[in-house]
């Protein structure tokens, strides 16, 4: 009998898992339905470039439904909640959609209103975020008019999508103001709740050095409690202050609100607890998660969703066949870090191995954790790969789901 | 691994002073660790947070972040900072004898 797979979310994770499953399962084996409230698929890695005029907003969005293989049903609808006991998704209009397997791929949600004052006076006037298309476009205008003073780039709290993006923003801002000839009039300050630029030691040293070289001041362990737009200051919970003329903030993130309305599905922040290896939810065996919606300790990034895709698709087909799950995700993450002036770094890591120097994906390959023109070209090429390889659920030639050790300078202790 | 003696018992800690084995922790050690952190007296509110941290660690295997503490412990983030001025998640974890909460990547 045909089974029904319902995928919530038509973004990176939802699209690639639906396409992978459609290829693996015949039409008579499974019906696949993807549900999303809108039909705009935004290439999120491109948002970083919009404020600097290096990407046009119109070029970043495409239709969601056009990214699906034939034989996948797209339903444009808002989800009210999931009833795990009845294997049912309830839509906002009250209609139920039953499932045999549910895939949660609704990512993370920005919650600027959870920080005191952030959406008050000054929001979208002198306080912006580039994590939305509207925000990135508005910030472009504000940057163009900015002719000096302190630009504070502030992360409200972890987790955030693409945790290197705020650092990349600092690097690109440095280059941008240099090109405009006003770098000496701009004080660039990076404000983070972490105790360094990045959580992992080797990468932290590298990125901290780069921030220093580019004259970016770093304020660490700053947990923003309030954003005072009128007064132009960030105030931390422990009473410290950072004044600003222009602020670029990364708002708090959480899971989608329907997760919070679905008893038993999510955690305190609305993310869905899963087994770190199989990506099967801890709530029910017939619920799986792909991408940012999961509570696993990886970066919230498209590459993670891509590497998870192979594992989750395999586990779902085995689950439907009544076989034990054997797909195991290793936490593999791969990020290009744009460092300005046509160069970029590349980092590649997993649950157990921090980002190291070396080359990727093997001894002959892109340089890891080092600025190079080649990595910048890699980042640009990634835009094409995203639409034509990642979303269709295919493998990038030479790049596998599991993190490669060859090419990396592993510390001898962990060999 | 360094060792420290609290209330007559030797325990193993990491370089930053976090317990490596939470089972070695006892309640009578908490005031001593707190004093090292500059907190002279543990009030009932401190204990509410410490016990919550222990409970979270026992059920989930890691200590909660400040934001999660603020949502679930019954103590607001503002008050958490008043109780544990050097960063509630880290300081309360240290006093509660559990490992440093995992930073998100």
Q: Would you give an account of this structure?
A:
The complex is a heterodimer of chains A (415) and B (105). Chain A has 415 residues and is an alpha/beta fold. Chain A has 3 domains: 3-108 and 255-320, FAD/NAD(P)-binding domain (3-Layer(bba) Sandwich); 112-253, FAD/NAD(P)-binding domain; 333-414, no CATH class. Chain A has helices at 12-24, 133-145, 165-179, 201-213, 257-260, 302-320, 373-390; strands spanning 3-8, 30-36, 40-42, 61-63, 72-76, 79-83, 88-91, 96-98, 101-104, 109-110, 127-128, 149-155, 186-191, 217-219, 224-228, 233-236, 241-243, 246-250, 253-254, 287-289, 333-340, 343-349, 358-360, 366-368. In chain A, a hairpin with a 2-residue loop joins strand 21 (333-340) and strand 22. In chain A, helix 1 runs parallel beside helix 6. Chain B has 105 residues and is mainly alpha-helical. Chain B has one domain (3-95): Orthogonal Bundle (Arc Repressor Mutant, subunit A), CATH 1.10.10. Chain B has 5 helices and 2 strands, in the order ββααααα. Chain B has helices at 30-36, 44-60, 66-72, 77-83, 88-95, and strands spanning 3-6, 9-12. Chain B has a two-stranded antiparallel sheet. In chain B, a hairpin with a 2-residue loop joins strand 1 and strand 2 (9-12). Chain B is globular and about 35 Å long. The interface between A and B is medium-sized, with 20 and 18 residues.
């Amino acid at each position: 009998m045909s089974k029904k797979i319902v995928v919530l979310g038509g973004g990176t994770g939802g699209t690639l898992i639906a396409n992978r499953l459609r290829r693996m399962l015949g039409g008579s084996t499974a019906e696949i339905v993807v549900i999303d409230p809108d039909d705009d698929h935004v290439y999120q890695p491109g948002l970083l470039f919009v404020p600097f005029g290096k990407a046009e907003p119109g070029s970043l969005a495409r239709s969601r439904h056009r990214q699906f293989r034939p034989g996948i049903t797209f339903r444009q609808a808002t989800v009210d909640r999931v009833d795990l006991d009845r294997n049912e998704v309830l839509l906002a209009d009250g209609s139920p959609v039953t499932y045999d397997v549910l895939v949660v791929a609704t990512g993370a949600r920005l919650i600027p209103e959870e920080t005191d004052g952030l959406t008050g006076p000054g929001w979208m006037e002198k306080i912006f975020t580039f994590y939305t298309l509207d925000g990135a476009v508005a910030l472009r205008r504000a940057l163009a008019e900015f002719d000096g003073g302190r630009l504070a780039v502030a992360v409200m709290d972890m987790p955030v999508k693409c945790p290197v993006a705020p650092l990349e923003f600092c690097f690109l801002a440095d280059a941008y103001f240099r090109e405009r000839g006003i770098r000496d009039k701009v004080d660039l300050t990076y404000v983070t709740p972490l105790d360094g630029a990045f959580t992992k030691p080797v990468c932290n040293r590298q990125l901290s050095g780069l921030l220093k070289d580019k004259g970016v001041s770093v304020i660490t362990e700053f947990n923003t409690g309030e954003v005072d737009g009128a007064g132009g200051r960030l105030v931390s919970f422990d009473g410290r202050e950072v004044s600003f003329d222009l602020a670029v903030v990364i708002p708090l993130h959480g899971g989608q609100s329907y997760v919070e309305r679905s008893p038993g599905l999510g955690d305190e922040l609305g993310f869905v607890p899963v087994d770190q290896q199989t990506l099967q939810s801890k709530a029910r065996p017939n619920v799986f998660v792909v991408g940012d919606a999961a509570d696993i300790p990886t970066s919230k990034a498209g590459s993670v969703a891509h590497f998870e895709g192979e594992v989750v698709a395999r586990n779902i087909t085995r689950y439907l066949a009544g076989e034990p799950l054997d797909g195991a995700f290793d936490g593999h993450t791969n990020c290009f870090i744009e460092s300005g002036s046509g160069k970029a770094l590349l980092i590649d890591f997993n649950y157990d191995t921090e980002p190291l120097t070396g080359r990727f994906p093997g001894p002959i390959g892109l340089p890891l954790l080092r600025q190079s023109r080649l990595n910048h070209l890699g980042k640009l090429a990634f835009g094409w790969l995203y639409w034509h390889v990642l979303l269709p659920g295919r493998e990038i030639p030479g790049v596998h789901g599991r993190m490669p050790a060859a090419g990396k300078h592993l510390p001898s202790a962990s060999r | 691994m360094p060792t420290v003696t609290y209330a007559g018992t030797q325990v193993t800690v990491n370089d930053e002073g976090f317990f490596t084995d939470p089972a070695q922790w006892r309640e009578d050690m908490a005031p001593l660790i707190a004093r090292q952190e500059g907190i002279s007296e543990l009030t009932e509110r401190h204990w509410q947070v410490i016990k919550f941290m222990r409970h979270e660690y026992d059920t989930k295997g890691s200590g909660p972040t400040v934001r999660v503490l603020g949502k679930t412990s019954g103590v607001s983030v503002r008050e958490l900072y008043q109780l544990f001025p050097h960063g509630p998640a880290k300081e309360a974890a240290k006093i509660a004898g559990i490992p440093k909460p995992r930073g998100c990547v």
